[in-house]
Amino acid sequence: MNIETKNTVVVAGGGTFGTSIAERLAWNPANRVIIHSIEEDVVETINKYHKNNKYFPTRYLNRSIKATGDFNIFSEADVIFLVIPSKFIISFSKQMKDYIPEDKHPLVINLAKGMSDEGAFITENIPFERTASMKGPSFAIEVLNGFPTAFTFGGSKKDYNYLKNELLPETSLIIDHTNDVRAVELSSILKNMYAIAIGLVSGRYNSPNVDYLVYTKAVNEMRGIMKLYGCNEDIMYRYCAIGDLGLTGLNDLSRNRTLGMLIGKGFSYDQHSSATTIEGHRTTKLMGEVIKEAGLEEEFPLLTALYKMMFEKYTLNDYLLAVFK
């Protein structure tokens, strides 16, 4: 039986997470799913072989998924998921806006976890009327494999209901809701940074006792920063906050935790020479400078110690002494 598609969904970004989200959304037969990618090899292999050879070379994708590098596809979208590196989203969105008719208002959902290079909240700075942010404990490979995965949807109740009832059935994707979009964005920004902080002590001690000591400090500091930005502190108990911090800070599939572990074991790290973007490294610099300029170092000792170790002259031992006070 053929089911007519009702929702044209464009996933902007053909990397690991964009591909995984597209795969899950395609399992709802009411969704027509297109991946937009600037990588020509990604577009070619998805359309020709139903595989993303660059990021998942051994996995076949749902045969209904198409890919394109043509920006005109955004003119057809009912929903757009932004799944590209956070520092490029604002400029990408301005370019994308030029291709969308003035009388069409797609729902634009930011899935990236980070801030712009200027320290701006992404969803507040993209030029669309209907915007939302969706974050949660979600490793790409597990999304691709269809494991039940949860997110917090930050946006209007109407758009939440549309997403939940129209796009997500049969996808194994689960969402809860808040109107506090900034809190959802901020929690996903902070958890990457604190995952590095937890990874540092994991690399040094390999001790659950120590991991959860620092994890608890991280939860409390995240809550304090939420308050500082005027966010709803209860967001800490949602998928996007305590859930995502647990996933990212305590699981070795996390790049941010892995960075911390490597430094904790004595390896050095240079973001400029790395081919992998570590969002927590950028966030540590941005948030560390905010806390420093506000004179709040004593209220956020974990963040302050991490900032000093990564951008000033703290040694690993200096970091550990500060963390365990």
Task: Describe the secondary-structure layout.
Layout: E1 7-12, H1 16-26, E2 31-36, H2 40-49, E3 51-52, E4 56-60, E5 66-68, E6 79-82, H3 86-97, E7 107-110, E8 131-135, H4 140-144, E9 149-154, H5 157-167, E10 173-178, H6 181-205, H7 208-228, H8 239-250, H9 255-264, H10 279-293, H11 301-311, H12 316-323
Parallel strand pairs: 1-2, 1-6, 2-5, 6-7, 7-8, 9-10
Antiparallel strand pairs: 3-4, 8-9
Helix pairs in contact: 6-7, 6-8, 6-9, 6-10, 10-11, 11-12
What characteristics describe this protein?
single chain; 325 residues; alpha/beta; Rossmann fold; N-(1-d-carboxylethyl)-l-norvaline Dehydrogenase, domain 2; eight-stranded mixed sheet; two-stranded antiparallel ribbon; 12 helices; 14% strand; globular
